[in-house]
Design brief:
CATH topology of chain A: ABC transporter involved in vitamin B12 uptake, BtuC
Oligomer: heterodimer
Radius of gyration of chain A: 22 Å
Number of helices of chain B: 17
Strand order of the largest sheet of chain A: 1-4
Strand content of chain B: 25-35%
Helix content of chain B: 25-40%
CATH class of the largest domain in chain B: Alpha Beta
Helix content of chain A: over 70%
Mean pLDDT of chain A: 88
């Protein structure tokens, strides 16, 4: 059972998460306090939800750069619908979720039927959606959207913040979707071998469209949370979400070739980023060094995976060395440290 | 050919094996300056492997290569190229985004010695010279992707010639060329031979071989059957030597043909090179499609499977006219397709065995909307036992399996999909004898259960032995349909390669 766990690809990221939690709790006694942990769960919620979409798209072998801009359009639209046009909040939310689906559909359409590589297509829509957000708001943020919004983000259930539940529920649903439904399996098949997928009767185009549409929906959900978080809509929101969500998926072990990755792994990836950021915040490390550290984490996470066989060989050799000669052990240890 | 000359190049006792196959077994040949030496044999006889050994692509497992009597060892293609071996491969090695001139000098760019910058002017001039020397009317500045396939082939040849080689290996150089261009190429080869270069000419088109070659070496199953001046041979001798008389392998063929018709293909044409093809397959019948690489045999399979759109004609499955828009529809109607290239079109390397098997019919392992992973695994266990697949397939990605096991996983996929008509494209290519016998056993089991098989194979003895009837395909057309027992390998090869052999030439003594 344990052996089986080690062979799964999630094992590495989970150990890494434990490691960063350990380091963070050693670095600051405040880390493990309930107030801080609850803060981390708030921080991580939005990027974690966007990372669901990033994972789906990456699994098909594509990439989505646009969700940050989708978040901005959704925030601004929700603010306009509710504050300026006076629509009831639930109606506004429903409409912007549909908007997210539509924006995802455009991404999917461009890369599936338009045959534009997803990197380029979503690079373009990233710019277009961001521009739309500026267009509809005339470039000025809309504040105090609705008093009802606060409870969506800051509400608690059993003393735990609501976003924690949103993340948990969405990840549970999407994990089951990926593991146990035909469309979910088809996403893996498409990313694993498109030609074989086509020859085994998988409607490749529809599956790809589905991944982008779901990614749009997830970005819209994240957008609603973002609006609730700040009770405002601004065209500048979410500018880093696109890359952060990709980082979370990749740190979790998703492969940009497609076909490899999972929901649990991406959640772990998002948590790793959040814990590292939080730990650095607690130690009052300046933002510049935070950015640099996150970059290092990405290199390390993907690098360790790529170099696994080489590193394994080196470790094995060191291990053989140490068991045969204890004197050598000290020298390798010192040289290693 | 004057025999008193010493050979310029020679190969002695070349051996090379791939997992499960001895591709070359102690093959020797001497090559004289100014000689066009044809290398012929059936598909898989080792021609291309020998070419790649001479070109340094494959390391030798035995034997030696001599240039002017001195032994040479090539560790990689660059070393071979430096020693004067230029190769034109079946697959193009051009960078399609670069110009013709750049491609000709790819890897050996002309540079200013002082600044180490590329001397574009000198390079273009040399390219013009090479092209002129070959009398090719191709713009040296044209981007390769804009050229026709035939022109690309000619650039490939220009590239090989620019290297000032003494040995030029051409592997199926005419496959992409039209008649005029072939004529052109023949003249070119003669001119090169007159410059005392040695040319190894690999082709399955015997008419070309007889036109251009001075001598011919015939390979069969990785062994040299013979070498002789072409003037001492006639077409029939060559074909007989290619085929051989002893079919040692034992094929466990069983016949289960039922009278009802399963598939009826009438006058089908596609845009992908199928022309007016008609045949029918009965229930429980193995219908073989024989032909050379690129003959259109795979495309016929793809037309039936709904991959390529049928432009003319009709396909009837169980007496119902079918027009498949995609493979989902054809699979739902009970057709399965085992593709020729397992790695590219078959296996999901990110999946373990069970997921690879159930993918074609996931509905079967659903409960409500959910895939039952336990049920899926049981399906996997079931087929692992049934087809004698390595049990490690259950928990590990299929990329760790041998070719034979991977192939059996894909066969399991189509057994699980409940296909009533199974198209097998090269089902035994690159797998060992044991796995081959398993595949034959599965074919028998399937036909016994009334499932029809469309068998495509380059291995003609296998095709003849395992099929009930055979259609010979060339240029996307079916030229002959016959009972498998009534068609000999000689006849099959002759028709498939476009050589006419008289009807009654002692054919019966070879078959079965």
């Amino acid at each position: 059972m344990i052996k089986k766990f080690f062979r799964t690809t999630v094992a590495g990221p989970i150990f890494a998460l434990f490691a960063v939690v350990l380091v963070a709790s050693l670095a600051s006694p405040r880390f493990l306090m309930v107030a801080n942990l609850s803060n981390v769960s708030l921080q991580v919620s939005i990027v974690a939800i966007v990372a669901i979409g990033a994972t789906l798209v990456i699994l098909t072998g594509g990439i989505d750069l646009s969700p940050g801009s989708t978040v901005a359009v959704v925030c601004c639209t929700l603010a306009i619908l509710v504050k300026n046009m006076g629509l009831p909040l639930p109606v506004g939310i429903l409409l912007v979720l549909l908007l997210g689906v539509f924006l995802g559909f455009i991404n999917g359409f461009l890369s599936t039927y338009g045959k534009i590589p997803s990197f380029i297509a979503t690079l373009a829509t990233m710019s277009i959606y961001r521009g739309l957000a500026f267009l509809i708001t005339n470039g000025t943020p809309i504040f105090s959207v609705s008093p009802q919004l606060d409870s969506i983000f800051y509400g608690k259930f059993l003393k735990i913040p609501l976003p924690f539940y949103y993340v948990l529920i969405l990840y549970a649903i999407m994990a089951i979707f990926l593991r146990n439904t035909i469309p979910g399996r088809s996403i893996y098949a498409l990313g694993g071998n498109e030609s074989a997928a086509r020859l085994t009767g998988i409607r490749v185009n529809r599956v790809r469209m589905l991944a982008y549409v779901l990614a749009g929906l997830m970005a819209a959900i994240a957008g609603v949370l973002e609006t609730a978080w700040l009770n405002s809509g601004s065209p500048n929101y979410g500018s880093e979400l696109g890359l952060e969500s990709i980082a979370a998926a990749v740190i979790g072990g998703a492969s940009l070739i497609g076909g490899y990755g999972s929901m649990v792994a991406s959640l772990v990836g998002a948590l790793i980023v959040a814990v590292v950021q939080n730990g650095l915040n607690l130690r009052a490390v300046p933002a510049s060094w935070q950015e640099i550290t996150i970059g290092g984490v990405i290199v390390l996470a993907v690098g360790l995976d790529m170099w696994r066989s080489t590193l394994g060989g080196i470790l094995k050799r060191i291990f053989k060395f140490t068991t045969s000669d204890s004197k050598e052990e000290k020298s390798t240890k010192t040289s290693g440290g | 050919m004057e025999n008193d000359k010493t050979p310029l190049w020679s190969a002695h006792g070349i051996c090379k094996s791939f997992p499960g196959v001895q591709a070359l077994d102690n093959v020797s040949m001497d090559l004289y300056p100014g000689e066009v030496h044809a290398l012929i044999g059936e598909n898989g006889s080792g021609k291309s492997t020998l070419a790649k050994c001479l070109a340094g692509v494959y390391p030798l497992e035995g034997g030696e290569i001599f240039f002017k009597g001195k032994p040479l060892i090539f560790r990689d293609p660059t070393e071979a190229r430096k020693s004067g071996v230029a190769t034109i491969y079946q697959e193009f090695s051009l960078v399609t985004t670069l110009s013709v001139a750049e491609n000709i000098f790819l890897g050996s760019y002309k540079i200013y010695p002082s600044s180490r910058l590329i001397d574009w002017a000198a390079m273009r001039l040399s390219a013009v010279n090479v092209l002129e020397q070959l009398a090719l009317e191709i713009d040296p500045d044209a981007i390769v992707s804009g050229l026709s396939v035939a022109e690309q082939q000619l650039v490939e040849i220009a590239k090989a010639i620019s290297m000032e080689s003494t040995l030029l290996i051409m592997d199926e150089p005419t496959a992409a060329l039209g008649l005029v261009e072939i004529d052109h190429l023949m003249n070119l080869i003669r001119r090169l031979a007159s410059q005392n270069k040695t040319i190894i000419y690999i082709s399955h088109r015997l008419d070309e071989v007889f036109e251009i070659a001075d001598r011919v070496t015939i390979l069969k199953d990785g062994q040299r059957v013979g070498t002789a001046p072409i003037s001492d041979m006639n077409m029939r001798d060559v074909v007989r030597m290619m085929v051989g008389f002893d079919i040692e392998q034992h094929y466990p063929k069983e016949t289960h043909v039922q009278p009802e018709i399963c598939l009826e293909v009438s006058h089908v044409s596609t845009d992908k090179g199928v022309h007016d093809v008609s045949f029918e397959i009965k229930k429980g019948e193995v219908f073989g499609l024989g032909g050379m690489l690129g003959s259109g045999r795979t495309e016929i399979g793809k037309a039936i499977f709904g991959v390529d759109r049928v432009r003319k004609g009709s396909i009837k499955l169980n007496h119902k006219v079918m027009f498949f828009k995609n493979t989902a529809e054809s699979i739902a109607s009970g057709i399965g397709f085992l593709p020729e290239n397992r790695k590219v079109d078959g296996s999901f390397l990110n999946f373990e065995g069970p997921k690879n098997i159930t993918i074609s019919r996931l509905k079967e392992v659903l409960k409500g909307p959910f895939i039952q992973l336990a049920t899926e695994r049981m399906v996997g266990v079931d087929y692992v036992k049934k087809l004698d697949i390595s049990p490690s397939a259950l928990d590990r990605s299929v990329q760790y399996l041998s070719g034979g096991n991977q192939q059996k996983v894909i066969i399991a996929r189509w057994l699980f999909s409940q296909a009533r008509l199974l198209i097998l494209d090269e089902p035994t290519q690159g797998i060992d004898i044991g796995a081959k016998l398993d595949v034959y056993r599965v074919i028998n089991e399937l036909t016994a259960n009334g499932i029809s098989i469309l068998l495509i194979s380059s291995d003609f003895p296998e095709l003849i032995a395992m099929s009930d009837r055979i259609a010979v395909v060339r240029d996307g057309r079916i030229l002959k349909i016959a009972e498998a027992q009534r068609i000999s390998e000689i006849e099959l090869i002759s028709i498939a390669s476009g050589v006419e052999v008289e009807e009654e030439t002692g054919i019966k003594e070879i078959s079965s």
